[in-house]
């Protein structure tokens, strides 16, 4: 039955991806796309993510280009964002920034006709715009272009001031400038909005770990909570290993380092859990 049902093949690909059975996931996602003759944006996105988890970024970008050519204009946006993220992961910051700018220009053009757009479509576009500004802010933070990074962050916060990721990115900006106490405040604010926001848990733990002393036990608690929510976070495993090493638990620390290494080698540019386990279109 699976051989004649693209939805089942998609779900199988997603399950294999979540379990990091990536070769099997590629086969299922490819077969799903063949069944629908390339007509599923969800399947294209999943295949791109799987290839990125295999660290095959060149092929992932090539597939993204094919998907963009195949998709209708409204369906290109998420794939274009994936392409820009792949370019950033490859260290190609100039092409990545240009891809993000193209994406923002398309979103801006769509905003002109929002009056004829449904409420759910508006919210989806707003979130995509916000995430795109934050992606750009993160690139400029890596480049230590603080002025440009702040402009992008302000654009995102103007859409939703209480979006946890906005405050997480603000924390990363401050941490990048060695303003650790201010960064802790930003991460804390992100967690006050969403207590289960794993990236800020991990970033807070990283700063607390560097402070040492009594802060180590607090960092350990944050990291164990983060791993309970997101057990495939290689950064959380790495930082937990560093905390345990500082506390003298060398054997357990070694296990954490091993887990961090293995997960980093299988880490996609976006978490697979962000991709729905069902094929929508």
Automatic annotation (TrEMBL):
Alphabetically ordered keywords of this record: TPR repeat
InterPro entries, alphabetized: NPG1-like, TPR-like_helical_dom_sf, TPR_rpt
Highest rank taxon of the organism: Eukaryota
Tagged with keyword Chaperone: no
TPR repeats by residue range: 234-267
Pfam families: TPR_16 (PF13432)
PROSITE patterns from the UniProt entry: TPR (PS50005)
Keyword Ligase among UniProt keywords: no
PANTHER family: PROTEIN NPG1, PROTEIN NPGR1
Entry protein name: Uncharacterized protein
């Amino acid at each position: 039955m699976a051989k004649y049902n693209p939805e089942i093949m998609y779900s199988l690909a997603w399950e294999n991806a979540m379990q990091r059975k990536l070769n099997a996931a590629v086969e299922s996602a490819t077969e799903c796309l063949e069944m629908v003759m390339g007509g599923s944006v969800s399947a294209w996105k999943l295949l791109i993510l799987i290839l990125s988890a295999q660290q095959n970024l060149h092929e992932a970008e090539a597939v993204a280009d094919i998907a963009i050519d195949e998709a209708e204009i409204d369906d290109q946006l998420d794939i274009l964002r994936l392409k820009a993220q792949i370019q950033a992961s490859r260290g190609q910051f100039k092409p990545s920034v240009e891809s993000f700018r193209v994406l923002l220009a398309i979103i801006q053009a769509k905003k002109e006709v929002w009056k004829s757009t449904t409420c759910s479509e508006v919210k989806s576009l707003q979130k995509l715009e916000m995430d795109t500004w934050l992606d750009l802010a993160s690139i400029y933070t890596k480049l230590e272009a603080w002025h440009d990074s702040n402009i992008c962050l302000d654009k995102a916060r103007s859409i939703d001031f209480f979006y946890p990721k906005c405050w997480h990115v603000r924390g990363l900006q401050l941490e990048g400038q060695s303003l650790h106490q201010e960064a802790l405040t930003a991460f804390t604010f992100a967690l006050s909005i969403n207590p289960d926001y794993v990236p800020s848990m991990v970033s807070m733990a990283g700063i607390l770990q560097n402070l040492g002393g009594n802060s180590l036990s607090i960092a350990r608690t944050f990291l164990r909570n983060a791993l309970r929510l997101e057990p495939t976070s290689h950064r959380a495993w790495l930082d937990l290993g560093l905390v345990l090493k500082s506390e003298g638990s060398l054997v357990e620390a070694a296990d954490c380092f091993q887990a961090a290494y293995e997960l980093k080698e299988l880490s996609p540019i976006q978490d697979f859990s962000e991709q729905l386990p069902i094929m929508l279109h």
